[in-house]
């Protein structure tokens, strides 16, 4: 069977988590910083290490079959690729930001103003949607210093913690688009058996990340209240303990309602609660 090729970021914010995700899928490969391509030893896949901006184009042209890249980069490239799976990391928001003392108050106040950005395509679409005529200054880096240098009245850039805006005397003004890392594929690849296998593994890793394995002890008389709180993958496993009248309950709960559930379980008589990470969940 012919190997598929997946393009991931060579270095930068998405590199480590992309490599980790593939390793968690059981793929065995060397991650040399110097190499541009590596072969997975135990799966029909080659990994290309690229600048993130090049990934959507490589996938659209079929040079790579798959890619892991931020939605912001995909949209800006306008490459024709298929979204296969949201990956839950690299989360950020493309925002318009303005100087702290700016007179701009409303979106329509952007009319006639200049906005510096590395995302002219996405910004233009946003401005068109709100029928705003602004002057887009396309620059490739250090966008946040543009207003201070007198180059623009506002910026449109990626924000995650907001620290960079603050340290440059800027404040967030409008959200343009949220983004996270996405697995993309070239068109027509959807039914490929290697992709299906890889997708299944990725989804089982993502599911496991959202859940915890919980073991707790409870007196048998309190078991009905405990099982009511727990809705596991199926129903919880109940195992008798050496001590008469006591059982251990094993189940899986989602990260989201973790603390809420733990407190309810304690109130319902659960003791010795042990919480463990899960590596994979195969449905
Ligand atoms: O070299 P290469 O071209 O591959 O990488 P790059 O330098 O273009 O991208 P990189 O590694 O910085 O980011 C890769 C992807 O990570 C982006 O395309 C986004 O999808 C995602 N991402 C998540 C971010 C951020 N968070 C982020 N905070 N990308 C950039 N930033 C920058 C932002 O541009 C700004 O300068 O971080 C600064 C703001 O951060 P805060 O925390 O101060 O708000
Ligand atoms: Zn880049």
From TrEMBL:
<dbReference type="InterPro" id="IPR020621">
    <property type="entry name" value="ATP-PRT_HisG_long"/>
</dbReference>
<dbReference type="GO" id="GO:0000287">
    <property type="term" value="F:magnesium ion binding"/>
</dbReference>
<keyword id="KW-0547">Nucleotide-binding</keyword>
<keyword id="KW-0028">Amino-acid biosynthesis</keyword>
<comment type="function">
    <text>Catalyzes the condensation of ATP and 5-phosphoribose 1-diphosphate to form N'-(5'-phosphoribosyl)-ATP (PR-ATP). Has a crucial role in the pathway because the rate of histidine biosynthesis seems to be controlled primarily by regulation of HisG enzymatic activity.</text>
</comment>
<dbReference type="InterPro" id="IPR013820">
    <property type="entry name" value="ATP_PRibTrfase_cat"/>
</dbReference>
<dbReference type="Pfam" id="PF01634">
    <property type="entry name" value="HisG"/>
</dbReference>
<dbReference type="InterPro" id="IPR015867">
    <property type="entry name" value="N-reg_PII/ATP_PRibTrfase_C"/>
</dbReference>
<dbReference type="InterPro" id="IPR018198">
    <property type="entry name" value="ATP_PRibTrfase_CS"/>
</dbReference>
<protein>
    <recommendedName>
        <fullName>ATP phosphoribosyltransferase</fullName>
        <ecNumber>2.4.2.17</ecNumber>
    </recommendedName>
</protein>
<keyword id="KW-0963">Cytoplasm</keyword>
<feature type="domain" description="ATP phosphoribosyltransferase catalytic">
    <location>
        <begin position="51"/>
        <end position="203"/>
    </location>
</feature>
<dbReference type="GO" id="GO:0003879">
    <property type="term" value="F:ATP phosphoribosyltransferase activity"/>
</dbReference>
<dbReference type="InterPro" id="IPR013115">
    <property type="entry name" value="HisG_C"/>
</dbReference>
<dbReference type="Pfam" id="PF08029">
    <property type="entry name" value="HisG_C"/>
</dbReference>
<keyword id="KW-0328">Glycosyltransferase</keyword>
<keyword id="KW-0460">Magnesium</keyword>
<dbReference type="InterPro" id="IPR011322">
    <property type="entry name" value="N-reg_PII-like_a/b"/>
</dbReference>
<comment type="similarity">
    <text>Belongs to the ATP phosphoribosyltransferase family. Long subfamily.</text>
</comment>
<keyword id="KW-0808">Transferase</keyword>
<keyword id="KW-0368">Histidine biosynthesis</keyword>
<keyword id="KW-0479">Metal-binding</keyword>
<dbReference type="GO" id="GO:0000105">
    <property type="term" value="P:L-histidine biosynthetic process"/>
</dbReference>
<dbReference type="GO" id="GO:0005737">
    <property type="term" value="C:cytoplasm"/>
</dbReference>
<dbReference type="GO" id="GO:0005524">
    <property type="term" value="F:ATP binding"/>
</dbReference>
<keyword id="KW-0067">ATP-binding</keyword>
<dbReference type="InterPro" id="IPR001348">
    <property type="entry name" value="ATP_PRibTrfase_HisG"/>
</dbReference>
<comment type="pathway">
    <text>Amino-acid biosynthesis; L-histidine biosynthesis; L-histidine from 5-phospho-alpha-D-ribose 1-diphosphate: step 1/9.</text>
</comment>
<feature type="domain" description="Histidine biosynthesis HisG C-terminal">
    <location>
        <begin position="208"/>
        <end position="280"/>
    </location>
</feature>
């Amino acid at each position: 069977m012919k190997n598929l090729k997946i393009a991931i970021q060579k270095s930068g914010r998405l590199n480590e988590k992309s490599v980790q995700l593939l390793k968690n899928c059981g793929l065995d490969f060397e991650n040399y910083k110097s190499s541009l391509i590596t072969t997975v030893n135990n799966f029909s896949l080659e990994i290309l290490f690229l600048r993130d901006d090049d990934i959507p184009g490589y996938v659209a042209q079929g040079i790579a079959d798959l890619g892991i890249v931020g939605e912001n980069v995909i949209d800006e490239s306008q490459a024709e690729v298929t979204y296969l799976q949201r990956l839950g990391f690299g989360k950020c928001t493309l925002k318009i930001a303005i100087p702290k003392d700016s007179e701009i108050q409303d979106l329509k106040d952007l009319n006639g103003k200049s906005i510096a950005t590395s995302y002219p395509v996405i910004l233009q679409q946003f401005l068109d949607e709100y029928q705003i005529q602004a002057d887009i200054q396309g620059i490739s880096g250090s966008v946040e210093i543009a207003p201070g240098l007198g180059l623009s009245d506002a910026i449109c850039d990626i924000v995650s913690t907001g620290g960079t805006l603050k340290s440059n005397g800027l404040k967030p003004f409008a959200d343009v688009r949220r983004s996270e890392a996405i697995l993309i594929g070239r068109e027509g690849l959807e039914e490929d058996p290697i992709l299906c296998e890889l997708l299944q593994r990725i989804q089982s890793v993502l599911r496991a990340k959202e859940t915890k394995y919980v073991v707790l002890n409870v007196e048998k008389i309190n078991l009905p209240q405990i099982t009511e709180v727990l809705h596991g993958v199926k129903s919880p496993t109940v195992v008798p303990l050496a001590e008469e009248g006591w059982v251990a309950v094993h189940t899986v709960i989602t990260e989201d309602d973790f603390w809420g559930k733990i407190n309810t379980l304690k109130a319902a008589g659960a003791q010795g609660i042990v919480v463990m990470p899960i590596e994979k969940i195969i449905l």
